[in-house]
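Researcher: Good morning. I'm working through a list of sequences from a screen, and I'd like to move beyond sequence-only analysis. For each chain I'm collecting a predicted structure so we can compare shapes side by side. This is the next one on the list. No need for commentary yet; just the structure.
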Amino acid sequence: MKALIVQLMFAACVLGFGVRADAQGAPAEHSMTGCLAKGDDAGTFKLTDLEKGPKEVVIAETTANLTPHLGHKVEITGVAVPGKDKTHTMKVTAVKMISAKCP
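Model: Good morning. Structure tokens for this chain:
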């Protein structure tokens, strides 16, 4: 019985460390604030005039409806994804309007 408990505890530790390792490898969700504009390619968007960070963020993918926010100052939330060149590229999961006007 004692051996079984030790084996179960060992298995729980191994599984726990495995889950932690996967979570550490996942891209971190983050938010950025700027002006939402049409992207360079059809059907894409970009964030310009950012408060902090890069000059521009390319929005490669989105699950949020961004079209109503074109020309608005918004906060986007999502994760970084591989993009062209060295531009910051994101998959957006949420958008929050900050202002109907952009600087």
